[in-house]
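This follows on from our talk about sequence and fold. Please put the record directly below this note.
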Amino acid sequence: MYIVNTIAELKEKLNECRSRHESIGLVPTMGDLHAGHVSLVKRCVAENDVCVVSDFVNPTQFNDKNDLAAYPHKPESDAALLEKNGCTIVFMPSVEEMYPEPDTREFHFGALEQVMEGPYRPGHFNGVAQIVSKLFYAVEPDRAYFGEKDFQQIAIVRNMVAQLGLKLQIVSCPIIREADGLAMSSRNARLSAEERKTAAHISKYLFESRDMASSCPLSAVREYVIDHINTEPLFRLDYYDIVDGISLQPVQNWEDSPYAVGCIAVYCGNVRLIDNVVYKIDGKMVK
């Protein structure tokens, strides 16, 4: 496994791979890797000759400077975990390497960025588009892998790829959960013992609402989740929306969309957690 810190060195290594007609996969991460990231790496390794993992905490997608300051950085343990799981190249650039000058590009995603995370994190998706596009230009992958926990982000990235006319496949991968159902996230480590126990109730209520969905109207399912989240003293709900899985626009009835997804953002104490559950896909309710 190679660890590279500059785009020039990265391109040199990848040009060698391309000369051998090897396929290239990319897993973009912000480090502090856990089993959720490992699942993406394993799939990338299985489906490509070369697996590139970027490990970079991107400052332009944080609209809260305190959130950026608190984000953990563990390059040594990240590298050891990646080598163990078959990664070919780890790209660990500095901020100066990725942003030798300010990135003034502005991306516009229309209705996709006006719902869910958009109103709560202004500028976030523009920052995501800036760094992900930079990584795509640097790596030129055949495939790039993203976790479905960040459901809205995947839609944004797909839209960006279309806008820029890039030739690669975006591969979405299932949420990896802890034994009690909590979606794996680097933020989980910031929870106190009491908060960590309570945080598992997010997925609990989502799963219970999924069990209800085939026999209840959408409004009742939505009300169930919101009411139960609001009964937890440690929780503060930002949003819970049931949306069309492609347009991300809210739906009012199950018949409105063949692909319905419930997306949630909740503060547990001072830690903001997101999750989602699929209620309906390919026109069929999920059991």
User: Anything to note?
Assistant: The two ends are 42 Å apart (CA to CA). The beta strands are 2-4, 24-29, 50-55, 89-91, 143-147, 169-173, 235-244, 260-268, 271-281, 284-285. The chain has two domains: 2-173, 186-279. The chain has a mean pLDDT of 97.
